[in-house]
Design brief:
Strand order of the largest sheet: 1-2-3-4
Number of helices: 0
Structural class: mainly beta
Radius of gyration: 14 Å
Oligomer: single chain
Strand content: 35-45%
Largest sheet: 4 strands, antiparallel
Shape: globular
Length: 109
């Protein structure tokens, strides 16, 4: 089955940076995660109803080659895990907790 991505908006509000990666939470449709600009490593947790920023997972202070910009945000509704995976262009996988709003694990691929 082929998937087609359709850009719905280029900027949600004036308060947000340009968005090109968005992940709605399958276990909590009241929030979503998005990157903050195509060249930054920050990821914001945003309220789906008010578009307010709940929390910002700041980019890591690593060499640019290790991190780079955010390329994807993944979640799973197969289990009730509150961890989300953030993938960076430099091959870094970052697992963050939505319950505790902190980093949990890092892997370099």
């Amino acid at each position: 089955r082929e998937k087609l991505c359709v850009q719905l908006v280029s900027k949600a509000t004036n308060a947000l940076d340009e968005i090109n990666v968005v992940c709605f939470d399958p276990n909590n449709p009241r929030v979503f995660m998005s990157n903050c600009g195509s060249d930054k490593g920050d990821v914001k947790l945003i309220s789906a109803f008010t578009m307010d920023t709940i929390f910002t997972f700041k980019g890591l202070s690593l060499e640019a080659s290790q991190q780079g910009p955010v390329k994807f945000i993944a979640s799973s509704n197969a289990r009730k895990s509150q961890q989300r995976m953030i993938g960076y262009a430099g091959g870094l996988l970052r697992f963050v907790s939505l319950n505790e709003l902190e980093d949990k694990e890092f892997y370099q691929v």
